[in-house]
């Protein structure tokens, strides 16, 4: 991309200020003035002493300049340079500065675009659509003889000029060249599908949700669209289905798309819908799709709704207060998704050894089987836990007439631990049981006390309140059952070991 640097040596503050106000890309001044000028603008300010001036009088000069550029030095080509050597340098470096002594020389230098260089081509007229109104720009190529410039973006500047951004693929371009501009027709067609579908979607939302719906923003890409609209509540699945059906019905009807340029008052009388909050001139472009849609629009569209192909809503949700967003796909994108979905369906059916038509019932049967297996597994786990609880009772330690059990069983959740504790408490009135489990890096503690243990002054809640802090946690509960937790896994043994002394101190 061409850049303009202003060299002001000897220094003149007035000239520098004027250059900065004119929008130059950089300034070159004596080293003593760099700091002063840097305070006036955000653009680069170079010391003149750091910019070498090199003359191009021979091939060796060209090679020497290239070597210095690759070494990171700043080099300006002295006046008298020719286009071909500059083009050769630009092909290998975009850091080339060419000194210009007048406007014609500046135009010539700025007008050179060489292979591999990013740049902007400005045309007096163009077939390319510049990004606006939510529709992305056309892509394509600009050619001149053997030269080729690949366009990847187009913007319209404040002066009404169309700025084609891209890269030179081969050859070179100069200011004043006569060129051929060609858009990517397939990409344009995909964008037209998306934009035409956007109009149908707007109409569908108004028909299903109400006339309060207004467009709040949009993005139209090849076979893909995003549409923001005003609506005060969530859209139900039934409403979303109705919107999808409305759009696809309009597509299947094959409605002609008619475009007219009309005086704005005539367009309004005709019933054309303007985008909410948008400003329009005296003459507007109206896009009409039968009785379904009639809107002001400057974008590209199909000549018949049938060419949209398939339409599918991908997502819907809120993006701001009172504003919702629908994302949808059309054309080839929809076909690709349907094809991909069908392939996944077939593969799933093959894995389950059934057909696509029988897949739903097969999955339903498997879910029922899994539910039954899960139920049986839970029963098995419960029985195993109860069996373990019986083992705890037989190995319980006698402490002044009570039976004390402390144990750690990792991997159990709070519910499983509680069932184990309830069994101990209900089976043995003299039981004082403290159980611990470590799962997912967290400690769960449970204390249970039988009727006789509670009557003797031992309370489960007091036990948990005493030992949970040892594991870096807290807890509590009722006299006969209490739970707590912690995060210090390494302290579980210490917490269980503290139970014996705690019980002895309570019993005196």
Ends apart, CA distance between termini: 90 Å
Tell me what the CATH architecture of the largest domain is: 2-Layer Sandwich
Strands of the widest sheet, in order across it, are: 21-22-23-24-26-25
The chain-level structural class is alpha+beta
- The average pLDDT value, as a whole number, equals 86
- Report the CATH C-level class of the largest domain: Alpha Beta
Strand content: 25-35%
Report the principal-axis shape.
Answer: extended
| The CATH fourth-level homologous superfamily of the largest domain | Threonyl-trna Synthetase, Chain A, domain 2
**Ranges with pLDDT <50 over ≥5 residues?**
none
Note the main sheet.
6 strands, mixed
Radius of gyration: 39 Å
Domain module count: 4
Helical stretch tally:
14
């Amino acid at each position: 991309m061409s850049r303009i640097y202003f060299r002001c040596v000897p220094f003149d503050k007035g000239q520098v200020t004027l250059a900065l106000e004119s929008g130059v890309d950089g300034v070159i001044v004596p080293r003593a003035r760099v700091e002063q000028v840097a305070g006036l603008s955000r653009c680069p300010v170079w010391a003149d002493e750091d910019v070498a001036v090199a003359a191009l009088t021979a091939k060796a000069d060209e090679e020497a300049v290239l070597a210095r550029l690759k070494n990171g030095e700043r080099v300006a080509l002295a006046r008298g340079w020719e286009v071909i050597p500059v083009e050769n340098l630009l092909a290998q470096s975009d850091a080339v500065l060419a000194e210009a002594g007048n406007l014609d020389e500046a135009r010539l230098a700025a007008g050179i675009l060489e292979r591999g260089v990013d740049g902007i081509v400005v045309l007096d007229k163009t077939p390319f659509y510049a990004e606006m109104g939510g529709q992305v720009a056309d892509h394509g190529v600009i050619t001149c003889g053997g030269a080729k410039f690949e366009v990847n973006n187009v913007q319209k500047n404040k002066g009404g000029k169309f700025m084609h951004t891209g890269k030179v693929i081969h050859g070179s371009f100069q200011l004043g060249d006569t060129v051929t501009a060609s858009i990517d027709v397939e990409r344009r067609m995909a964008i037209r599908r998306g934009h035409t579908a956007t109009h149908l979607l707007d109409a569908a939302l108004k028909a299903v949700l109400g006339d309060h719906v207004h467009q709040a923003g949009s993005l139209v890409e090849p076979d893909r669209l995003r549409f923001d609209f005003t609506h005060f509540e969530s859209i139900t699945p039934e409403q979303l289905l109705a919107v999808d059906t409305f759009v696809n019905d309009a597509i299947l009807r094959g409605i002609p798309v008619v475009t007219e340029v009309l005086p704005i008052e005539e367009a309004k009388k005709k019933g054309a819908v303007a985008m909410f909050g948008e400003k329009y001139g005296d003459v507007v472009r109206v896009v009409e799709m039968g009785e379904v849609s009639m809107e002001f629009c400057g974008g590209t569209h199909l000549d018949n709704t049938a060419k949209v192909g398939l339409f599918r809503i991908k997502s819907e949700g809120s993006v701001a207060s009172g504003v919702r967003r629908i994302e949808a796909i059309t054309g080839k994108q929809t076909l690709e998704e349907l094809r991909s979905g069908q392939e996944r369906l077939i593969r799933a059916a093959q894995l389950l050894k059934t057909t696509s038509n029988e897949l739903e019932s097969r999955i339903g049967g498997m879910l029922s089987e899994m539910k039954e297996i899960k139920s049986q597994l839970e029963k098995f786990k419960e029985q195993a836990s109860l069996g373990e609880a019986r083992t705890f009772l037989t190995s319980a330690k006698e402490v002044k007439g009570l039976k004390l059990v402390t144990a750690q069983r990792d991997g159990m959740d709070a519910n499983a631990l509680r069932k184990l504790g309830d069994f101990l408490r209900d089976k043995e009135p003299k039981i004082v049981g403290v159980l611990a489990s470590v799962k997912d890096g967290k400690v769960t503690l449970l204390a249970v006390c039988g009727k006789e243990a509670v009557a003797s002054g031992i309370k489960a809640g007091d036990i948990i309140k005493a030992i949970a802090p040892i594991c870096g946690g807290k807890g509590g509960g009722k006299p006969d059952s209490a739970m707590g937790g912690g995060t210090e896994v390494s302290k579980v043994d210490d917490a269980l070991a503290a139970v014996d002394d705690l019980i002895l101190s309570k019993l005196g």
